[in-house]
Amino acid sequence: MNRSDILDTKALAARTALPESTVHRLLKGGTPPADTVNDRVCSRMKVVSADYLVRTGKRMSDLAAELSARLGISDVWARSVCDGRKTPNIELLHHLVSFFGVDGEPFFTAEADVALNRVLMPHLRRLENPEQDPVAALLDRYGVKGTDLRIHGSLSRDQLERILEGVLRSVLPKEGDAGR
C-alpha cells in the first residue's frame, strides 16, 4: 500500500461520509468547517443513505418503508432523516448505526477531524510499527474486523493462527461445494 492509497481523498470521504473538500482541507493541515452536531448527523445520514440506495438499487421510498417497518417510525420521518432534513433522536441513531453498518454513533456525531482520524489511525499504527501487535496483524491478515481480544492474551501466535484457520475452514465452502 502506498501513500496515495491511504490518502485518497475520495475514498476517505466515502469512508467518513465527509465532503471530499473537507477531507482535502484537513489533509493539508486546515481546520474543519464550523458546524453543529445536528449538522454533522444530518449531512452524514444523507451521504450514508445515498450510498445505501446506490449499493442496493433501491429508491428512497423503499428505504423509508424498510426503516419504518423495522424501526417503528413513519415513512415521512424516515425519509426526512435519510434526506438529512431531520435529526434522529439518540435511540433512532443507535438503530441507524446498526442498519447502515457504520462504526458506532460517533460515525455520525464526531467532528470532521476526529472522523478522519478514526479512519487514518489504524493505517498509521501499522506503518509506525507493523510488528508491535502481532495479534492485530494476524486478525487483519484473515480479515477479522472485530473480536473480543480479552481471551487472546493467553494464546500464542501459533495457537491463534490455528484457531483463525479453523474458523475460516468452517465457514468457507470446500472445493467442489456449491457454497453455503
Task: Describe it.
This protein is mostly helical. Among the domains are: 73 residues, 434 Repressor (Amino-terminal Domain); 49 residues. Helix content is 64%, strand content 0%. It is built from eleven helices and no strands. It is globular, with a radius of gyration of 20 Å. The model has no long low-confidence stretch (mean pLDDT 82).
Question: Rg, please?
Answer: 20 Å
In total, how many beta strands? 0
- Given helix and strand content, the structural type is mainly alpha
Mind telling me which CATH architecture of the domain at 37-109 this is? Answer: Orthogonal Bundle
Coarse shape = globular
And the CATH topology of the domain at 37-109? 434 Repressor (Amino-terminal Domain)
| Residues in helix, % | 55-70%
CATH class of the domain at 37-109: Mainly Alpha
As residue ranges, the low-confidence spans are none
Give the H and E element order: HHHHHHHHHHH
- Hey, roughly how much beta strand do the residues contain? under 5%
What is the makeup of the main sheet?
A: none
**Total of DSSP H or I helical runs spanning 4+ residues:** 11
How confident is the prediction overall: mean pLDDT?
Answer: 82
Calculate the terminal CA-CA distance, rounded to whole Å: 32 Å
